[in-house]
Amino acid sequence: MGEEAERGPLEDDALDEEPSLEDRLAEALREKDQFRLIAARAQADLQNYRKRAGEEREEARRGANTAILLRVLSVMDDFERAMAHVPDDAVAPGLPEGLRLVQKSMTTLLESEGVSRIEAVGSAFDPHESEAVMYQETTSASDGEVISVVREGYRQRDRVLRPAQVVVAKRVEQHSEESEVAE
Amino acid sequence: MPKVLGIDLGTTNSCMAVIEAGDPRVLENAEGARTTPSVVAVNEKSGERYVGMTARRQAVTNPNNTVFSVKRFMGRRYDEENVQRDIKLVPFEVAKHSNGDAHVSMGGKGYAPPEVAAMILQKMKADAEAKLGESVTQAVVTVPAYFNDSQRNATKDAGRIAGLDVLRIINEPTAASLAYGLDKKTDEKIAVYDLGGGTFDITILQIGDGVFEVMATNGDTHLGGDDFDQRIMDWIVAEFLRDQGIDLKQDRMALQRLREAAERAKVELTTLTETEINLPFITADASGPKHLVMTLSRSKLEQLVDDLVQRSIGPCRQALKDAGTEAGDISEVILVGGMTRMPAVQKAVVDLFGKEPHQGVNPDEVVAVGAAIQAGVLQGEVQDLLLLDVTPLTLGIETLGGVTTSLIPRNTTIPTAKTETFTTAADGQTSVEVHVLQGERSMAGENKTIGRFMLDGILPAPRGVPQVEVTFDINADGILEVSAKDKGTGKEQRITITASSGLSESEIDQMVKDAETHAEEDRQKREEIETRNAADSATYAAEKLLKDNEDKVPDDLKEEVTANVQAVRDALNGEDMAAITAAVAALQASVQKVGEIVYSQQGGQGPTDPPEADGDSGGTVEGEYREV
After folding, report:
1. H-type helices in B269-342, by residue range?
2. CB neighbours (10 Å) of residue A70?
3. Which residues of A117-136 are buried (b: 16+ CB within 10 A; e: fewer)?
4. Higher pLDDT, residue B475 or B364
5. Which of A38, A42, A81 is closest, CB to CB, to B280?
6. Which of A175, B330, B507, B584 has the fewest CB atoms in 10 Å of its CB?
């Protein structure tokens, strides 16, 4: 190591001494072909670019949209955590009902943007839509099944906006009841 | 000439780029991400293979069959000290193959590291093909400068297995230098500081005649962004334990959220000096739910990671020493890797080398961009042969009121051509002057005249009727041809302006700067002229309307219009813009009355449209073509 050198893109062509007419013609023909190729390529690049430009604009718009949606989703996560701690109706009359309505309006907003929840629990773990954060030994679910969701995942139309973070079942026989978690 | 892919095959993440129309462009993978995790996994039961993000997501369920950091084992012997140390850090099995190489195992089957790397390359190839809509068979792949021959060959093999002909293997620091165009430099020393997700490399390069020579390399194979994140997490856990007496380390769900919050805080603190870590309902005890709310300042963060930053400085000093040079002799400093976005890291580098590093190319992508530039060169010397130039200054012509009307804006790539139609400014005008201008100012007088000519023989007609087509055509050599053609008679005049200016770089800069400083003043002047032009057109239109409908308009209205026309003319003699605008408004009100009367008398036919008062609408623009 330390001694190797590489040629960069600057390489000088050796100069011919005295080119004959034939050589110059050959050179010109070679150049003509080369330039034609370059022109064709440039033309093709342009056409392809045009075709893709619209698509990319759409992607950029979606990208900006995604950034905002992801932040909304993280607020949604916190709200749902809060919901889990809401006292029952007897203790705080009307409160649970009211909060559920808030949650509903948030869900409606997300739905209007084409966002839907990934239903992972109970189905086989799919790394395209979910991220396994725990692998838990169990006797009550089949191996590789999603037991619970740690953080909800969402899809926007046909693409995954945010994968679900899930706990995956590791099927063990009856004798071991302890859960093992891998990192 | 199919495209050659430039690939940065990284320890943690990989990235790819191509040259498109002369410029490098990073290609997104199938999941829409600009980098792909260098992780491969095989599901033991189904035999299904995962590469990239999906492999990373399933790692927890399948640790023994998920291979990451395979680059650390590329072309290495099992017995090497480094290999022995790395084996202890990975959950997958590494075994000694019969030839003495280190092989990894997935799904109960042994794989040579190049086979695993090939799976990553294969995915990138497929994703690139989907993105580009054409097949890709050739690539330039980067490797660390310290890779020896067998590691380089292993990388080449990986390409071949993936169906890619690896045209060239280039060093990562060399690629980064290419991304900043440093191959054009002669006889300079370059320091490339690369702090990525899990490894740190410092390389001292010498560039001369387009050849990069590695003078020295050094680094730390286990120092990177993950260590920084861990520091933040440790701090949050310790603070929470102190405040609440709860150890979050015991709570795996909480740790998951902490890890993400730590990374987000790190990213936010590159631009902000303070960030809030806000994790409601992080955990709960007998007294109820607990929330985590903390403020992390940039200076606190810098304190937390100071020793990590310092750990990178020792290898830099050693590399300088090995290269037989000093920090002061380094002409260029390049930063590579996401961690170099951190201000504290940048400051440490500036302090060491006494020089501002190059910035501008995304540090996560700079190596792939450089690989693509090398690929572009191999792909057919596109840039060298067809270096497309741009027009340094705006080109246009003078129109009514001494205004510059631009035809070709500055920074337009040439060759290019543009045609616009103009018209006459006075009744019976038989010739126009085309005054060709160069510069950024709105007023003709403040731009540079680069040519002028007359087009005559225009048939006498009311103003606005003749159509003169003006075409600017710049060829690839920067030679400008301006032609003007009267559409009525087909008469044409042209002028060729060679090397459109002869302006030096500094003159061009000056002209652009002037334009910026005078922008407001010019805008006002231009507005003023536009107001005047519109007022002038309005009087002309009103008179024409009266004349065309002489017998239909009652005398008192005629007088009113005539008086208003005179008022506008009087206002035009003065400098008060508000007075002109007011006079024009009054005139237009009376013209409207004329229109109503004419319309009612025509009984249902459309009103005689007064000619457009605003010369700006439609394709025909009034030019400053005075009769000679």
Report:
1. 298-322
2. 12
3. ebebeeeebbbebbbbbbbb
4. B364
5. A81
6. A175
Q: Which chain A residues touch B59 with a CB distance below 8 Å?
A: 132
Contacts of B280 in chain A (CB under 8 A): 78, 81-82
B194 is catalytic: yes
Do the beta carbons of residue B375 and residue A7 sit within 8 Å?
no
Q: How far is A162 from chain B (nearest CA, A)?
A: 12
Q: Is-contact B410 B393, C-beta < 8 A? A: yes
Q: Measured between beta carbons, which residues in chain A are less than 8 angstroms from residue B284?
A: 85
Contact (CB, 8 A) for B340 and B224: no
Please report the DSSP string for B118-174 in residue order: HHHHHHHHHHHHHHHTS---EEEEEE-TT--HHHHHHHHHHHHHTT-EEEEEEEHHH
Which tens digits make up the pLDDT trace of B219-234? 999 999 999 999 999 9
Chain B residues near residue A44 by CB distance under 8 angstroms: none
Contact status of A26 with chain B (Cβ, < 8 Å) = no
SS3 B562: helix
User: Tens digits of per-residue pLDDT, B64-123?
Assistant: 999 999 999 999 999 999 899 999 989 999 999 999 999 999 988 999 999 999 999 999
Which of the following is catalytic: B86, B101, B127, B172?
Answer: B172
Q: What is the pLDDT of residue B269?
A: 95
Cα gap B11→B197, rounded to integer Å: 8
CA distance A99 to chain B (A): 16
- Go through chain A and tell me how many residues it has: 183
CB contact under 8 A, A78 and B253: no
- For the beta carbon of residue A110, count every other beta carbon within 10 angstroms: 19
- What number is the average pLDDT over the span B299-307? 96
What residue ranges in B338-467 does DSSP mark as E strands? Answer: 395-399, 403-408, 416-423, 432-438, 448-455
Report how far Cα A24 is from the mean position of its chain's Cα atoms. Answer: 55
What tokens appear for A78 in the block? 């916190």
The whole-number pLDDT of residue B536 equals: 86
Exposed/middle/buried for residue A154 (C-beta within 10 Å: 0-12, 13-18, 19+) = buried
Contact between chains at A78 and B183 (C-beta distance less than 8 A): no
SS3 B529: helix
Alpha carbon of B37 to those of A125, A144, B11, B13, B546: distances in Å? 20, 23, 9, 4, 77
Over B286-307, what HEC string results? CCEEEEEEEEEEHHHHHHHHHH
pLDDT at B454: 87
Out of A1, A7, A127, the one facing B57 most closely (by C-beta) is: A127
Interface contact flag, B210 A45, Cβ < 8 Å: no
| Measured CA angle at B257 (ends B253, B261), to 5 deg | 165
- Closest chain A residue to B386, measured at CA: A38
* Mean per-residue pLDDT over chain A, rounded: 82
- pLDDT (tens digit, 9 = 90+) per residue, B169-180? 999 999 999 999
- State the nearest Cα–Cα gap between B142 and chain A, in angstroms: 12
Name residue, tokens 């099992």: B78
pLDDT at B311 over 90: yes
Residue B71: active-site member: yes
* CB-defined contacts A:B, below 8 A: 123
Q: Does the active-site annotation cover B183?
A: no
Residues of A in contact with B21 (CB under 8 A): 42, 45-46, 49
Q: Rounded to whole angstroms, how far apart are CA atoms B102 and B84?
A: 10
CB contact under 8 A, B21 and A35: no
- Half-sphere exposure for B307 (CA within 13 Å, toward CB): 3
Could you tell me if B5 and B138 are in contact, meaning their C-beta atoms sit under 8 angstroms apart?
yes
* DSSP bridge partners of B521: none
Is B486 one of the annotated active-site residues of the chain?
Answer: no
Are B281 and A144 within 8 A, CB to CB?
A: no
